[in-house]
Amino acid sequence: MKNHSGHGTTIIKRSARRNHAGHHGGAWKVAFADFTLAMMALFMVLWIMGASSEEERHEIVSNLYTDSLFDIFSSRSTSSGSNTLPLFEPSGNPLPVAQATALQTATQEPETPQAREERSQREIEELARLIAQITSVYNAQSNLHIEIVPQGLRILITDDQQREMFQRSSAILAPFFQRLLSEFAPALNTIEHKIIITGHTDATRYRDQQRYSNWNLSGDRALQARRVLTEAGLNEQRVLQVSGMADQMLFHPEDPHHAANRRIEIMVLTHSTSEALYQFFGHQGQNIVAPIIDKISMTTE
């Protein structure tokens, strides 16, 4: 064709291409990236296995399985707070807070009873904050009551309308509370204080009291709580007493069947309180049982 100026006009006709996206898409790139990442992870594992001893490999696996919320909190507190240097055992593991404090003060002047009790009180307050943090992460504030009393730290883990700690009329611990107690175990290990674990029930009674009663149920629940704590790493020597109190100490006496009456109580004792208990019961029974036996033997001679 010619335009008005007499010059020819060239018309280029382009045909539309067919869509080949099905053959040239980007899905293969994602698959290749995943494959590359997996291979890199495999090479890292092989390198670690080749560069570490068998002992070190066992330690790495142990750390992977034992890290918990408590480890996160402890790492945060050490990075944000004190100027004291962490102390370590000969094996390379960090010492618990109480042992580290005792080791730091060992070379100093002997600790007076008053100073020891003040330190005990500070450790209990720090433990209360740590327990509250763990409880907040689990959103279990309605199931936990923490109280600092002259005898130590009182931790009450109770039922509520949404969660039951144990199956009704049994000592089978619900999975949620089993995980919560497991998180408490390393926190309780940070201080060298004795612990009393007590089980409580509401006022609902069994029909056959001779066969099984609230005394049996509260004791079994306390033992179950102790088992979960020790299996999660709590030092068995920390537990001074495990007992059941049935419905004798109701949390809500005005409502004997209230859910909060069904509870486990963990009492972290101050040093003076645990010493008083030792004086009452006697170390291995020698302060009480031995004098009585001596008096009996004297009267029979």
What would the keywords be for this entry?
about 300 residues, alpha+beta, 60s Ribosomal Protein L30, Chain: A, 5-stranded mixed beta sheet, 9 helices, 5 strands, about 45% helix, about 10% strand
- Kindly report the oligomeric state of this protein: single chain
Q: What is the annotated CATH architecture of the domain at 112-284? A: 2-Layer Sandwich
Provide the spatial order of strands within the biggest beta sheet.
1-2-5-3-4
Continuous helix count:
9
Shape: extended
Taking the sheet with the most strands, its summary is:
5 strands, mixed
| pLDDT averaged residue by residue | 77
What is the CATH class name of the domain at 112-284? Answer: Alpha Beta
Distance between the termini: 144 Å
**Approximate strand percentage:** 5-15%
- The ordered string of helix (H) and strand (E) elements is HHHHHEEHEHEEHH
Give a count of the beta strands, DSSP E runs of length 2 or more.
5
Output the CATH topology of the domain at 112-284.
60s Ribosomal Protein L30, Chain: A
Account of the protein in words:
By secondary structure, the chain is an alpha+beta fold. The protein has a domain at 112-284: 2-Layer Sandwich (60s Ribosomal Protein L30, Chain: A). Helix content is 47%, strand content 11%. The protein contains nine helices and five strands; from the N terminus they run αααααββαβαββαα. The protein has helices at residues 27-51, 54-66, 69-80, 97-106, 113-137, 175-188, 214-231, 271-281, 289-300, and strands at 144-149, 152-158, 195-200, 239-244, 263-269. Strands 1-2-5-3-4 form a five-stranded mixed sheet. A hairpin with a 2-residue loop joins β1 and β2 (152-158). The longest helix is centred in the first third of the chain and has 25 residues, at 27-51. It is extended and about 120 Å long.
